[in-house]
Amino acid sequence: MLQLQNYINGHLVPPAAGRYLPNIEPATGQVFSHIPDSDAEDVARATAAAQAALPAWRRLPAEDRGKLLVRISELIERDLERLAQAESQDNGKPVSLARSVDIPRAASNFAFFGTAAQHFASETHFQEGVALNYTVRHPLGVVGCISPWNLPLYLFTWKIAPALAAGCCVVAKPSEITPYTAFLLSELCIEAGLPAGVLNIVHGTGPGAGQPIIEHPGIKAISFTGGTKTGEHIARTAAPMFKKLSLELGGKNPNIIFADCDLTEAVRTSLRSSFANQGQICLCGSRIFVERSIYEPFKREFLAGVAALTVGDPQDGGSRQGALVSEAHLEKVLSYIALAHEEGGTLLAGGQRVTLDGRCAEGYFLQPTVFEGLAPDCRVNREEIFGPVVTLTPFDSEEEVLTWANGTEYGLAATIWTRDLNRAHRVAHELHSGIVWINSWLHRDLRTPFGGMKNSGVGREGGLEALRFFTEPQSVTVKL
Ligand code: NDP
């Protein structure tokens, strides 16, 4: 059986204590690999390797660092099919999704930041006849990158690539639930010739391998993507050590559909934004608010689309919905379906676990699920479910829908569907969301700031924001 290893100081190595954890394929419910159950000793070794590599790495011209990152991007593209199969096996997502979204976006993360470092500039402030002030942005040093299970390689590389581009060395931990492509990435980094110790990947659980990363005094910053509760714990631990923090956390995103929208396009994209990756994308819209005059036609077309979302083996090209990531997560999502019934919701579609035949008989499959008739402020409409469950709610005015859309503790993303440009901009401005898509969803430009307001996070990733995060400004003044 496949046995993953840590990537420390340029080598694939077993965990210091020799312990391994089983890794389950969600589509089959069977163990398909074992992963290091790393602890503080592994993190200490990884951090020491990163500290040793740092002086040479930060001195390397940005162009040379960039060439290595672009090389890694090319290797990801070369191995796209293998990586897509691995991501699907580890996470349960349809292989078609991993092939078209996860892996290409991981490659573009390295390509983008490989070249972005060369375009990164700092400021000068000239005081006529008095002084010249210039800012130098120094790499922070050794940083920690911790990522979740839903878009494993995509989000892992979204942190690692800018950190390396900025001249930092990295100790990274992927989710213990989906470690496979991070392991394959470590093989590609060796092949690309990334110097030893520049990137170190430590596998294991949150408490076992993640906690020592956030506590290690030699790690100067933590870039974390995951749940709001974990983010709060990380902030509580790392802030008193004055570590810089970037926290990308949960969401409960609204889709606002006005009557003047392009209904066909709004329905088509809302199906994707509701159920892509089985609803396990932090940017999925789980609360769909529809202007009352088109509520019934929207509902009819949306439910027809839901009925066509085939739940099946992620390896099968015809499957539109794969497995949820784990049995525990399936149970959590099912508990929210039970809660939606308790809170008075009317089930319009789905609601049941799916049992497939053959190799997937023990997999964690769930029907895409739609409720209506729930109060906008009930728990199902306020708490993050992170699965294929959405609610439909009619609204009568812009003011009303804005109150509901902003009525959760989260503020990550929102979509607006309308042909009225003035309204689109006005509503976007009033939304408490870090990301707003107008007549689209999941459109990506790597230069834009990515992140959430309120309990959805602190700081922004993407573009120059990420390079600023991984560097520390120093102001130098020359008296004239
Ligand atoms: P978790 O918060 O459970 O875990 C995220 C990562 O943190 C995992 O690698 C986990 O390890 C690790 N971790 C857990 N405990 C600790 C600890 N004490 N110290 C250090 N690391 C720790 O999130 P999930 O993996 O369940 O991901 C789902 C969540 O992520 C959702 O809330 C979703 O909204 C959010 N998310 C946010 C995004 C954004 O950009 N804002 C994007 C994608 C997801 P392990 O898995 O091994 O326990």
Please tell me about this protein's structure.
The chain is an alpha/beta fold. The protein has 2 domains: 2-249 and 456-479, Aldehyde Dehydrogenase, Chain A, domain 1; 254-445, Aldehyde Dehydrogenase, Chain A, domain 2. It is 40% helix and 23% strand. The chain has helices spanning 40-59, 62-78, 80-91, 95-119, 152-165, 180-192, 206-215, 228-238, 263-275, 295-307, 327-342, 379-382, 398-405, 421-430, 463-469, and strands at residues 2-3, 6-8, 11-13, 20-25, 30-36, 124-127, 131-139, 142-146, 169-173, 199-201, 221-225, 244-248, 253-257, 285-291, 346-349, 353-354, 365-366, 369-372, 389-395, 410-411, 413-417, 435-438, 453-454, 457-458, 471-479. The strands form 7 sheets. A 7-stranded mixed beta sheet has the order 15-18-19-14-13-21-22, with helices on both faces. Helix 2 runs antiparallel to helix 4. The longest helix has 25 residues, at 95-119. The radius of gyration is 23 Å and the shape is globular. The N and C termini lie far apart (68 Å). 52% of the residues are buried. The mean pLDDT is 98. The structure holds NADPH dihydro-nicotinamide-adenine-dinucleotide phosphate. The site of NADPH dihydro-nicotinamide-adenine-dinucleotide phosphate has 33 residues, from helix 7 and helix 8. It comes from Hymenobacter psychrotolerans DSM 18569. Keywords: NAD, Oxidoreductase.
